[in-house]
Amino acid sequence: MSDREYNVVLLGAPGAGKGTQAKMLSDQLAVPHISTGDILRGAVAEGTELGAKAKGYMDRGELVPDDLVIAIAGERLAQDDCARGFVLDGFPRTVPQAEALGRAMDELGREPLLVVNLAVEEDEIVRRLSGRRLCRDCDGIFHIDDEGVTDGGPCPDPDCEGELYQRSDDRPEAIRERLAVYREQTEPLIDYYSKRGVLVDVPGEGSPDEIAERLLPAVRDRS
Ligand code: AP5
Q1: Which of the residues 167, 171, 214, 222 is marked catalytic?
Q2: CA 95, 22, 166 angle in degrees (round to 5)?
Q3: Tens of pLDDT along 178-196?
Q4: pLDDT in tens, 118-164
Q5: CB 10 within 8 A of CB 118
Q6: Which of 87, 108, 122, 183 is deepest in the core (most CB within 10 A)?
Q7: Residue to probe by mutation, ligand 1, list 127, 141, 149, most atoms within 8 Å of CB
Q8: Domain over 6-121+197-213 is classified CATH 3.30.390.80
Q9: For ligand 1, what atom is nearest to the CA of residue 118?
Q10: Where are the domains of the chain?
Q11: Ligand 1 atom at minimum distance from 141 CA
Q12: Does residue 93 have an active-site annotation?
């Protein structure tokens, strides 16, 4: 196995396809997929203290406070399975989080960081989020327009057939709030990382496989 490091951040609006692409990319690079959204949803489902603190913010489509998220990301990045890198999905999403990630990378003696911006038009984002369905058993990410996906039906993966559900923050008012929060607090990171010369733009329109075919070479060439 290659000993190259792949320290990848996927940046993009809610519904840009970060989770879908992060799963594929982390398999291809053999590094862990770290989603702060998944970690927080896990904490809510388990009823932990972190989950209790995060739930209200998440349901309203607001960001969870920086200090909580920086602590969970820092702990996760220091784990042994991140020694050859990671695909970060949903972190950082504020300038203080980006600064904290920079400090953590320095402390862990890690470089370089590559930030991929997945750009998708707003109409398509709303279509993707309002139709998203997730599987409780295999964690698969689907869309109501995908073949074999129906409301009330099982996971379309024949090896799974688990229960599909809709995220509580995929309601129209939460989607509107998440997009507003993205524009105000996360979009400035495009400029932040661009100025540091570590940003690459990958168009996020097209099928998931088409995007994956653009993403992998972009990451391999720049890491
Ligand atoms: P998080 O879970 O990170 O949500 P998000 O950023 O809003 O992103 P999503 O998971 O909604 O979308 P995605 O880009 O991963 O798209 P996906 O691949 O699923 O965060 C949730 C909440 O947690 C936040 O609002 C906040 O409260 C909190 N939080 C998390 N991290 C935080 C942080 N760092 N700081 C503070 N708070 C934090 O795809 C979406 C849909 O589109 C699916 O249905 C999929 O099947 C479909 N799709 C994907 N790709 C394509 C394609 N190419 N063509 C057509 N359909 C596609």
Answers
A1: 167
A2: 90
A3: 999 999 999 999 999 999 9
A4: 999 999 999 999 999 999 999 999 999 999 999 989 999 999 999 99
A5: yes
A6: 87
A7: 141
A8: no
A9: 14
A10: 6-121+197-213
A11: 46
A12: yes
Output b/e per residue, 48-80; b: 16+ Cβ within 10 A. Answer: eebbeebbebbeebbbbebebbbebbeebbeee
Answer for the pair 87, 25: CB distance below 8 angstroms, yes or no.
yes
Q: Find tokens 């190259």 and name the residue.
A: 4
Q: pTM for this one?
A: 0.94
